[in-house]
Amino acid sequence: MDAARSRQGSLTKPPGSLGVLEEVSVRLAGIAGACPPPRPQRAVVAVFAADHGVVASGVTPWPQEVTTAMVENFRAGGAAVNVLAREAGADVVVVDIGVASDVKEDEVVWARKVRPGTADLSAGPAMTRAEAAAAVGTGIRVADDLVRRGYDVLATGDMGIGNTTASACLIAHLTGRPAAGITGRGTGIDDVMLAHKTAVVAAAVARVPAGADPLDVLAEVGGLEHAGLAGLVLGAAAHRVPVVLDGVIAGAAALVAQALAPAAVDHCFAGHRSVEPGHATALATLGLRPLVDLDLRLGEGSGAVLALPLVRSASAVLRDMATFDSAGIPT
C-alpha cells in the first residue's frame, strides 16, 4: 500500500484531488498485493435470498410470498439489480439460502437452502447455532465457486421480506446502539408499524447477552442471508478478492464478518449509504466510507452495482495515469 500511495503522489494531479478514488486505489493495491493493482474485470452480484419468520409479527405489510416472486423476477432478468448489473457489465447469481418455498435451480438461481426461512425472532431464536454456522459456510463456498469461475470482484445482494428487522437487531447488538436509533422503515412502513417494529427489535436484542459469540448472535436475531453474506466476505478475503457491499443488510452481515475475522473487512468497499438509519451506524463501525449516496433503500445489490464503475476507475487511474516524470511536467 505504501507503493500505491507513493505512486498516487507522483501522478499528474494535485495530491488528494481525486478524493476517495485515491484511497480506493490504494486499498485495491493492498488487497491484490501489487501496485498498480489489476483492474477488476469480471464482476458478479451474489443475491442471497431467504425468508424471515418475524414477518408473522407484523413488522411489514408485504407478504412472505414476495421473496419467492422476486427470485423468479431475478431469474427472468427483470429486477432493478438485473438492469443495473447489465449496465455495469456484471453478472447476477441468486443464492437460495433460505427461501420458505421450493425454488428451482438453474445457472442463475443456486439451491443452497440451509432451512426454509427462519423462525420468528420476536418469539425466540431465529435459527440454531448449527444452522447459522452452516449458512456462513455456505457463503464461503459460494465465494469459492465464484472465484473459481473467474470473477475477480464480488458485489453483495439480498432479498427477503422482513430482512431489515433482522438487520436492525444485528446492528443494534454489534454496535451497542439502541433500537430506536437503528430501526428504519424498510419497505416504507407507517409510524404505527415502525413503533411496533422498533419494539420487536429492542426486545429481541435484549435477549442477547453482551459479548455473545457472533454465531450465537446470528442464531438468535439474524437471517440466513446475513449469515451467507458474512461467509461471502470471509471467502472473498481468503482469496484476496474485493467485495463491494450493498446497503443495510450487507452492512449488518459485514459486522458479523468483522466480529468473526476483523481483517476480512479490509477487503470490503461500501457501495453506498442506505437511508435506513442503521446503515450509517454500521458503516461507521466498519470504518467504511460509502462511494454512492443517492437515498437508495431498495436492496437487491442495486447500490453495490452502481459503485462498481467507481472501483474499476480507481484501479485504472493508478495504473494508467501519467506521472509528472513520464509526462515531462516540472514540479
From TrEMBL:
It is an enzyme of class 2 (transferase). Belongs to the CobT family. InterPro entries: Nict_dMeBzImd_PRibTrfase, Nict_dMeBzImd_PRibTrfase_bact, Nict_dMeBzImd_PRibTrfase_N, Nict_dMeBzImd_PRibTrfase_sf. It catalyses: 5,6-dimethylbenzimidazole + nicotinate beta-D-ribonucleotide = alpha-ribazole 5'-phosphate + nicotinate + H(+). Keywords: Cobalamin biosynthesis, Glycosyltransferase, Transferase. GO terms for molecular function: nicotinate-nucleotide-dimethylbenzimidazole phosphoribosyltransferase activity. One of its GO terms (biological process) is cobalamin biosynthetic process. It comes from the Bacteria. It comes from Nocardioides guangzhouensis. The gene is cobT. Transmembrane segments: none annotated. The keyword Transferase applies. Catalyzes the synthesis of alpha-ribazole-5'-phosphate from nicotinate mononucleotide (NAMN) and 5,6-dimethylbenzimidazole (DMB). This is Nicotinate-nucleotide--dimethylbenzimidazole phosphoribosyltransferase. The active site is at 300 (proton acceptor). Its EC number is 2.4.2.21. Pathway: Nucleoside biosynthesis; alpha-ribazole biosynthesis; alpha-ribazole from 5,6-dimethylbenzimidazole: step 1/2. The keyword Glycosyltransferase applies.
